# Entry
Amino acid sequence: MANGYAEEIKALALMYKEKTEQKSVDAARQIEDQKTIRLEAPNLWAKLRQQIKDNVDGFNREVGRTAISWDDIHSDRIAMTRVDDGLKLEGGFDASISTAWFRCQPAKIELSLTTTVQFGIVEFAVIDSKTSAIRVNKTEDVANGLLRDFVMH
# Structure
């Protein structure tokens, strides 16, 4: 019987070692991901900001006039206004927490995008507050969705 206990303890010790080694690997990966985010998130924001501006410019060309003005020239903010009714959408990037945000209360736009590393690539994501599920958002999808929601409200 003592031999059976020895085998059980041996197996338990092996599982414990694997568990603690995995925690170390996960912690190291998390540290590396945070470094990657700090380095790449500002570039991701710049790409998103440019995509939004390009969409606004393209929309205005299609309308044939400036229907939406691009109001903010600061690199960490955006602001655009619907010329016809003055409705304004604002957004920005908080580098200290690598988070982008957008809001326009009358249009019911309230969006916060955190940055995450997916397969080695920094992406914007929405994290479900109830389930902690991560939904990755490509910059083109965010830019298109914001413009659609802003124009169609």
